[in-house]
Design goal:
The complex is a heterodimer. Chain A is α/β, with parallel strands linked by helices. Chain A contains 6 helices and 10 strands. Chain A folds into 2 domains: about 150 residues, Rossmann fold (3-Layer(aba) Sandwich), CATH 3.40.50; about 60 residues. In chain A, about 30% of the residues lie in helices and about 30% in strands. In chain A, strands 6-7-8-3-9-10 form a 6-stranded mixed sheet, with helices on both faces. A 4-stranded antiparallel sheet of chain A has the order 2-1-4-5, with helices on one face. In chain A, α2 crosses α3 and α3 crosses α4. Chain A is globular. By secondary structure, chain B is mainly α. Chain B has one domain. Chain B contains 9 helices and no strands. Chain B is globular and about 60 Å long. Classes of the chains: A alpha/beta, B mainly alpha. Chains A and B meet through β6 and α2 of A and α1, α3 and α4 of B.
Chain lengths: ~220, ~270
C-alpha cells in the first residue's frame, strides 16, 4: 500500500448564497484505504465530495489530488470514479450499452472490461433488458459499475447502498474491500453506521458542513 | 483531451439526445405531417402546390398596426415553441443528470459546453430538415406535384403580396433559414439563463421573448428573424433584410455562446 497522501483538503470552506456549507475542512486521504463519511442529510457530505472532485471551487482553502491543486494545476482529478445521485442512463438502452456510451468518451477500456465491471456489481452484462425495466437496486448497481469501470485511483460513492438488498450490500462490501486491496483511495458516504464501521479504515462525522469528529476503526475486516 | 475526444463528445450528445427525445420528436413530426395533410387537402381546392403549403404553415402574422387586429400565428407558434421545447428538454436532462459524469471523464468544462453549441447547430439543422422533408413529401403527395416551382396559386396569393419578388425555392429557403437562425439564438439563450434560473422558468422566459415578436416590430428581437412576413420581401417599410437577419443572428449566437462559455467555466457544478 502507498502510504503517501493522495487527496488532501486544507482549510477547505465553501460559501453559497452567503451560507457557509463547508467549514474549514482538513483531510489527508491515502491510497489503499476506505474512508467513511457519516452525517445527517444536509450535513455537507455530498458537497464535500463535489469539492474533492473539482466540481465546486472552494471559497477558501485548497484541494490537492496526487500533488496537484484542483482549480490551479488541473480542473478535475485525473482518475476519479463517482456515484453522486443517479446518472442519466437511457431508458431504451441496456446496462451494457449505457456504460459503453460513457466509456467511449475516455476510450480507455474495452467491452470486456465494461462487462467485467457489470459482473462485479452482480449484474449480467448480457442481460437484454432495457434500463427502464431495471429495479432500483439494479440501477444503483449499474451506477456503481460506471464509477469503477475505468479503474480509477479515486472512488467516491455517495450512499452506495441505497436501494440495495442484503445480498447487494454484501457484494458491494466485498467489491470495495477488493478495490482497497488494489490500492484505490475510496470515499463512501452513508447513513448506516454499521456498514461504515465494517468497511472503513477511518470515519469522519459531519455536521453543518464541519467535520466534528473522526476516528480510526481498529480491527475491522 | 484530444480533438478526437471533442468529436466523441459531440457524437455522444447527438446520439444521446436522439435516443432520449425520440418519442417527443416523433410526436412533433407526426403532428406536422397531419397538419400538412389537412392544410394540403384544404388548399388543394384553391389550386395550391407544395410551396403554398410551406408558406401557409410557416408564415407569421406580419406587422401588427393595431392590437385589435392581432391574430396569433398558431402554426408559427407551434413550430417555434415545440422545437425549443425539444432542445431545452434535452439540456435540462443532460445538465441535471449527466454533467457530473461527463465532466469527470473529459476533464474540461470548456469542451463540455462547446459540444453543446455544436449540438444546438446540428440538432436544429436536423429538426428543420425533417420538417422540410415531411411538409414537402405530404404536401406534394396530396397536391400531386413534387416540383418546387411557380404555380398559379403562388403568383396569385403569394407573389402578389411581395414587395421584392423571389422564386418559390428562395421563399422556402428564406423561411427555413429564419427559423434556423432564431432557434439557435434562443437555444443558446436558454443554455445561458438556465445556469441561474430553474429550467421551466427559463423556458417560459424564452418562449415569452419569442412570442413578443408577433406583436412587436423591434428588429433586435431574436424571433422576428423567423417571421417571413416581416422580412423586406413582404414589407417595404421596415427594411428587415435577410442579410441583416443572418449577420445579427450569427453575431448574437456567438456573443451569447461566449458569455455562456465564460459563465459555465466559472460556475460551481452543484
Amino acid at each position: 500500500m502507498t502510504e503517501t497522501v493522495y487527496v488532501k483538503a486544507e482549510h477547505l470552506s465553501k460559501e453559497i448564497k452567503k451560507q457557509l456549507i463547508l467549514k474549514d475542512i482538513n483531510l489527508s486521504l491515502k491510497k489503499g484505504f476506505i474512508y467513511g463519511f457519516r452525517g445527517k442529510n444536509g450535513s455537507g457530505k455530498t458537497m464535500l465530495f463535489r469539492a474533492l472532485c473539482g466540481l465546486i471551487r472552494p471559497t477558501e482553502g485548497t484541494v490537492t489530488v496526487g500533488g496537484a491543486t484542483l482549480g490551479k494545476e488541473m480542473s478535475f482529478p485525473p482518475s476519479v470514479g463517482v456515484l453522486i445521485e443517479y446518472p442519466g442512463f437511457l431508458n431504451g438502452y441496456t446496462g451494457f450499452e449505457n456504460l459503453k456510451m460513457l466509456a467511449r468518451l475516455k476510450d480507455q477500456i474495452d467491452n470486456e472490461r465494461i462487462k467485467e465491471s457489470i459482473r462485479l456489481v452482480g449484474l449480467d452484462p448480457d442481460d437484454k433488458r432495457k434500463y427502464r425495466k431495471y429495479s432500483l437496486g439494479m440501477k444503483q448497481r449499474l451506477g456503481i459499475a460506471q464509477a469503477i469501470m475505468e479503474e480509477p485511483e479515486l472512488i467516491i460513492l455517495d450512499e452506495p447502498t441505497n436501494a440495495l438488498d442484503t445480498d447487494g450490500i454484501e457484494e458491494l462490501k466485498k467489491l470495495l474491500l477488493d478495490l482497497k486491496k488494489e490500492n484505490k483511495c475510496i470515499l463512501i458516504a452513508s447513513h448506516d453506521k454499521e456498514e461504515l464501521n465494517y468497511l472503513s479504515d477511518e470515519i469522519f462525522m459531519m455536521e453543518n458542513g464541519k467535520i466534528i469528529d473522526h476516528y480510526d476503526i481498529q480491527g475491522a475486516k | 483531451m484530444k480533438k478526437q475526444s471533442m468529436f466523441k463528445l459531440i457524437l455522444r450528445d447527438i446520439s444521446y439526445s436522439l435516443s432520449y427525445g425520440k418519442f417527443k420528436l416523433i410526436i412533433f413530426l407526426s403532428i406536422i405531417a397531419v397538419l400538412t395533410i389537412i392544410i394540403s387537402v384544404r388548399l388543394k381546392t384553391f389550386g395550391s402546390d407544395n410551396v403554398g403549403i410551406f408558406y401557409f404553415l410557416m408564415k407569421d402574422n406580419g406587422y401588427v398596426l393595431q392590437l385589435s387586429d392581432y391574430k396569433p400565428p398558431i402554426y408559427w407558434f407551434f413550430i417555434q415553441f415545440f422545437v425549443l421545447f425539444l432542445i431545452s428538454d434535452y439540456f435540462s436532462q443532460d445538465i441535471s443528470n449527466n454533467r457530473t459524469y461527463l465532466l469527470l471523464r473529459i476533464h474540461s468544462k470548456g469542451k463540455y459546453i462547446f459540444s453543446k453549441f455544436c449540438w444546438i447547430v446540428t440538432q436544429t439543422t436536423f429538426i428543420y430538415v425533417m420538417i422540410f422533408l415531411i411538409i414537402y413529401f405530404f404536401s406534394s403527395l396530396v397536391t400531386g406535384s413534387f416540383s418546387i416551382g411557380g404555380s398559379e396559386y403562388f403568383n396569385r396569393f403569394i407573389a402578389s403580396s411581395m414587395e421584392i419578388l423571389v422564386s418559390p425555392g428562395q421563399l422556402i429557403f428564406r423561411i427555413f433559414l429564419g427559423f434556423f437562425l432564431t432557434t439557435i439564438v434562443l437555444s443558446v439563450m436558454y443554455l445561458l439563463f438556465v445556469q441561474f434560473i430553474p429550467p421551466i422558468v427559463t423556458f417560459l422566459g424564452v418562449i415569452l421573448l419569442s412570442g413578443i415578436s408577433t406583436i412587436s416590430d423591434i428588429i433586435w428581437l431574436p424571433a422576428i428573424h423567423s417571421m417571413i412576413m416581416k422580412q423586406a420581401i413582404f414589407d417595404g417599410e421596415h427594411h428587415l433584410t435577410l442579410m441583416f437577419s443572418i449577420i445579427y443572428s450569427v453575431v448574437l449566437f456567438i456573443f451569447l455562446a461566449i458569455i455562456t462559455f465564460i459563465v459555465f467555466r466559472k460556475k460551481d457544478m452543484l
